[in-house]
Amino acid sequence: SKLKEARDIAMEEMKQLATQKGANAIVGIDVDYEVVRDGMLMVAISGTAVRV
């Protein structure tokens, strides 16, 4: 589904950013979905990049 695809893209981008900063794990992941307008959906994802 489009929702899963959007979440997967956001997760992959977060992983890439964490790796660029030297992290090898992400903890405390939070995924939020917001309806913006005209049926558009925004996926916001956050977490803490760590090195273990």
TrEMBL record:
Gene3D superfamilies: Hypothetical protein apc22750. Chain B. It holds the Pfam family YbjQ_1. Signal peptide: none annotated. Belongs to the UPF0145 family. This is Heavy metal-binding domain-containing protein. It comes from Bacillus wiedmannii.
